[in-house]
Structure formats: C-alpha cells, structure tokens
Amino acid sequence: MKKALFITYYWPPSGKASIHWPLDIMTHLQNYGWQPIVLTTKNETFTSKDESLLKKVNPNWNVIQAKAIEPFNIYRKFIGKKQNEKLVESETVSLENKSFQHRVSIWIRMNLFIPDARIGWYFPAIKEIKKFITKEKIDAIISIGPPHTTHLIGKKISCQFDIPFYPVFIDPWVDISYYRNFKRSKITLMIDNHLEKSVVVKSKKIIFVTNSMKEDFVKKYPYIKDKSFVLYWGYNEEDFHPISFDILNMENKTSDEKVIVHAGNIFDYQNPESLWRVIKQKIDSGEKFKVKFIGTVSPLVKQSIKNYKLDSVTEYLGFLPYKDMIIELFKADYLLVCVTEKRHVPGKLFEYMRVGKPIIAFGNDNDEVKSILQSSGTGYLFSYDDDVDLDYYNKLNLKRNLEIIKQFDRKEIAKKLAEILC
User: Fold this and answer.
1) 259-308: pLDDT as tens digits
2) Which residue(s) pair with 287 in the sheet?
3) What is the DSSP letter of 310?
4) CA-to-CA distance for 205 and 420, rounded, in angstroms?
5) Residues 71 and 216 placed together within one structural domain of the fold
6) Disulfide: which of 32, 66, 122, 395 matches 418 by Cβ 3.0-4.6 Å?
7) How far apart are CA 24 and CA 319, in angstroms?
8) Of 197, 231, 265, which residue is a domain's last?
9) Is 192 among the domain residues?
C-alpha cells in the first residue's frame, strides 16, 4: 500500500470545520490503496474542541505532531483577554471594533505574518517530518490550506526528498476574503505572491474545492491548467446514519413556528440584512419565526439583529459538537448559508443539501452556488441586495435530485483523489 502524507494544521479534538474533509478523505482513501500519515500541530489553542471527532481517527495511522508558536496566545494578552478565554473568529477581523489594540493587531496580522499567522509552525513541522521520512518512504504529500503555511511545508519536503506534491486549496491565498477592507503593504503582497507562485509551480497537481477558484488560479497562472482539478468539499454519508427520527423529535416546537438555522462562522461582510427585515415584517404581521446561529457571529450581524428587534426570537448556540449540529439542521425549516464572494462554495452547503431542508443562500455573482442549488433542487440563491420573498420561495416547489447530491459523498470524492494521485 502506498503512503500519503497529509499536512493539516487542525486535527481532532479541534472542532474546526476544515478538519472534516481530510479526516473523511483519509478514511475512504484507504479503500483505494493509500495509507494516510498525518503531520499536524501539537498545541493548537484557537479552536473549540469536539472530542467526538477522535473516534474518527484510525489508531493505526501515524500522527506526527510538531509544536507551533501560537500567535493568538499573544493576541489574547494584547487585547486584554484572559489566557483561557475563547477567541471568536469572526470578531478577530471585524471592522466594528475600533479599539487601538484591535486595529494594531489587525495590521500586524495582515502585514507581518506571511502567508498567515501559522507561519510559526513552519520550522518545527519540517524538523519533525524529516525524522520520519528518513525512516519510512512516502509516496505523495497532500497539504490542506488554509493556513497556507501547510503548502510551504509540503513544498519544502517535496523538493528536499523528491516526493510528488499535491496542495489542496480550500480557500484562495493572496486575496482570501478576510483580507477584504484591510490594507496590506506592497512588500507584503510581493512576498505573498512569490510564495503562492512557488507552491503552484512546484506542485505535481493542484486540487481546488471550487471550480471558480480553479479558474481564477488558472487565469493568474495559465501554465497550471492541465494539472488543476476540482474536488468539492462534500459531506460524509456515514455521519448521517446514526441520526434517527426519535432523536429529532426529542424537542417539540410550536407547529406554526418557522425555524431558520445558520451553521458556521458568519462575518461582517456576510450580513443578509434583507432577510432580517423580511422576518421582522412577518413577525409584525402575526407569523412566528425563530433564528438560530451555530458557530460564531460577528458584531455587525448581532447589531443588525438588534436593529430589527429580533433579539427575542434569536438564539446564539455557539459551537456545537458535529452530531449535535447536524441534529439542529434536521430540526430547522430553512437552512441559511451566506456566500463570501464568487469563488466561495461554503462547506456547510453540502451538509445542508444532504439534510434536505430548503436552503436560503445569499451571495453576489456566485454562479457556482446557484448552479449547485438548481441542479440538486435544494434551494435558491439571492443577492445581498435582494428583497427576499419567502412566500414566493415556498411556491418554488423544490424537488431534491438525490443522484446529484450523492455525487458529493466524500467516499466518491476520495475515489477521484486516488485517481489524481496515480
């Protein structure tokens, strides 16, 4: 059996959403002749923990951990938080916070940490994996980014030991969405562009989780066209089997109350204000609604909820273990997803599709999400400026196309990855 090294900064018990793709892909990839080896961090403290994910880690896998300099520990002290106090991801890049400490920390993050705040993991990770490679043969290197520091580690090891290198881009690099509205210096951009280019040049094949991102990179680097592939984020069918109707009926809600659920982080620039306005109008006319957020919610979105006087019908559930999150999706009447930009296909979209509840999506100029929703018969995409007509939405009579949805099962995606690695 061939051996594939997966480089991922996040690993169970971290509850980071970006864990799910590599964790499930590794599990299924074993069925296609590949034994996974994992290089990850030893002391990641930023994310919430989900101990249940440890059950997915095969005890026979080699998991190599390397210590990292974790800048968010320094960030906590700088902004006056206690050592064990949780950081909210959407707040760390919020424009609503006008404090001097916050603005300084943003400038440092955007200009001094290149390519990202995890660059302190680079040298320790290389040191640890070198020890392993001198003893065991590795046939492929697969780096999962962001953080894009993982790609730099993969490139370095690939060049030094002549091992084929396959970076997986979950998000763009130099112009990733959270750089929006923040100024980066010309020197920073020059260095970052150089690092991005060096990774795509040295890679054997490149994997993107959206077609629009692939097209964007190919436009920037035309010579990578023939070695670029798309493997969508997808969902894991096995995660949905344990959820029974008995569990879903544990909590009874008022029959005429409509529940809208958003899962994942929601940032300032993803605020669907028109939806809040429509919900307020419907409540004023006597209808019953509830809005639930699972994950982190930015200050601007919370303020918008307040402005429309929806506090009393809004629940902020925070981080939930993965299974509990899935249960909340099943109990909803509508599932809300907010797209960042035209290259963004949110990972939650595929879990939403599998759950089967109507999806209300917001995004500007995102033809890819629109096409996925239409072909699967699972929802509709609005622009952020649209007036959302929920009555019209209900009349669309969505019909789920199960054959389309099944294509996004990670078992199928792992099979395609195995073909790419050959």
Assistant:
1) 999 999 999 999 999 999 999 999 999 999 999 999 999 999 999 999 99
2) none
3) -
4) 8
5) yes
6) 32
7) 21
8) 231
9) yes
The Cα 29–Cα 2 span in angstroms is 11
Q: Which residues contact 391 (CB under 8 A, 6 or more apart)?
A: none
CA nearest to 322, candidates 84, 21, 86, 60: 21
Backbone angles phi, psi at 164, to 5 degrees: -55, 140
> Amino acid identity, residue 275?
L
Q: Are 40 and 68 within 8 A, CB to CB? A: no
Burial class (CB in 10 A: 0-12, 13-18, 19+), 170: buried
**How many whole angstroms separate alpha carbon 76 and alpha carbon 121?**
19
User: Quick one: how far is CA 253 from the chain centroid?
Assistant: 30
d(CA 115, CA 149): 6
Query: Within 13 Å, how many C-alpha atoms sit on residue 406's CB side?
Result: 3
Note whether 371 and 286 are same-domain residues: yes
SS3 content of the chain, % helix, strand, coil (to 5): 45, 20, 35
Range of the domain at 114: 2-231
pLDDT by residue (tens digit) across 186-228? 898 899 999 999 999 999 999 999 999 999 999 999 999 999 9
Nearest Cα to 188, choosing from 100, 93, 119, 99? 119
Q: Tell me, what DSSP letter sits at residue 86?
A: P
Give yes or no for a contact between 277 and 246, defined as CB atoms under 8 angstroms apart: no
Same domain, yes or no: 265 and 151 = no
- Say whether the peptide bond before residue 115 is cis (omega within 30 degrees of 0): yes
Domain count for the chain, please give it. Answer: 2
Q: What burial letters (b/e) apply to 14-27, b meaning 16+ CB within 10 Å?
A: bbbbbbbbbbbbbb
Buried b / exposed e along 179-195 (16+ C-beta atoms within 10 A) = beeeeeeeebeeebeeb
Residue 214's identity, in one-letter code, is K
β-pairing, 334-338 vs 314-318, is unpaired
CATH number at residue 246: 3.40.50.2000
